[in-house]
Amino acid sequence: MSESILPRRHLSRRRFIAAAGATAGALLLPGAHAVPARALVFAHRGASALRPEHTLAAYAKAIADGADFIEPDLVCTKDGILVARHEADLTETTDVARRSEFASRRTRRTLDGERHDGWFVDDFTLAELKTLRAIERLPQSRPGSARYDGMFQLVTFEEVIDFVAAQSAVTGRLIGLVPELKSSTYFAARKLALEDRFIATLAAHEYTRRAPVEIQSFEVANLRYLREKLGKRANLRLMQLVGVGATRPSDVAAAGGKLTYADMATPAGLRDVAAYADIFSPPTRALIPLRPDGRLDAPTALAQDVRAAGLRLETWTFRPENRFLAADFRDGAGEHARNEAGSVAEIKRYLALGLDGFFTDDPALGRQAVDA
């Protein structure tokens, strides 16, 4: 994600350097609370830099590497089952394009305002989906992960919960879940609304009645609905994800509304978010943007404003390849090369802002940065 929410203003460079030299446990941001001593490490789609995303292998690797939470993005099958996929379009993350028996199901749909040509999860029953196998989304950058193409099944949300509960029992750690409801407006239009299915699944499992669960969405109406239905619970938080600049949430756009993600990132917008959510989750570059030369600029005021609104600050997403890093942290090994030291250094720069949590494709590097 190379763009960011338009910054309201910047902190002075001197103040940022002073903050960067402080530990996360010591840093205080104006107008709010003490920053937590240790930020939470969220495994983005599992350890997706190392295994095909949203597979039990990716989740297992993430947990072994020290993730505090694992992320299942949730979409819905034709027969109403929640499964873990990044989006409704199956084309880039499964072998469906190679499966002649499903060739006739290729079609075009609009997802979250973007036109897609491919195969869609809501055209498949769970039984059919289980015949597919996961593949690596970014094989050029992640050839190590691509070696596992074709090895792993797609999994349901219930299977993810059971797996995490089992891993918790084995490791002795209470591992959190940070599910994202994907494209709620799209699935509602397809008569496959996600929210009540999701609530029923949480209620059906002992683990999700007590383990930490942070529920994310780029939309607004579904989070408001979940807050109304779930209320305030000790183990549950709601996370408002935000995209870039003048982009509107899909539900807002579908209803003809004018609210943009940039509006939501203003002090007034953040106060509105705090009425229904617990967490504000912007892209990393909304917190520290890039200069024209690709190096990090001074931080925006967004971290301060989020805390002033009484919200937690959890950002997305850190990735370990040079192509995704700010120029400050790249090495000379090529854009697709893995750069562990650079990724850890970049995460640490952002941790100095006092993050409550962050998403990373490589939880081992996130763990290393936090533990440092």
From TrEMBL:
Ranges for domain GP-PDE: 39-370
Sorted UniProt keywords: Glycerol metabolism, Hydrolase, Signal
Classification of source organism: Bacteria, Pseudomonadati, Pseudomonadota, Betaproteobacteria, Burkholderiales
Coiled coil (residue ranges): none
Root EC class: hydrolase
Signal peptide: 1-34
Catalytic activity: a sn-glycero-3-phosphodiester + H2O = an alcohol + sn-glycerol 3-phosphate + H(+)
Gene for this chain: glpQ
Entry-linked InterPro entries: GP_PDE_dom (IPR030395), PLC-like_Pdiesterase_TIM-brl (IPR017946), TAT_signal (IPR006311)
Membership in a protein family: Belongs to the glycerophosphoryl diester phosphodiesterase family.
PANTHER family (UniProt xref): GLYCEROPHOSPHODIESTER PHOSPHODIESTERASE GDPD5-RELATED, GLYCEROPHOSPHORYL DIESTER PHOSPHODIESTERASE
Protein name listed in UniProt: glycerophosphodiester phosphodiesterase
Biological source species: Pseudoduganella buxea
EC number: 3.1.4.46
Superkingdom of the organism of origin: Bacteria
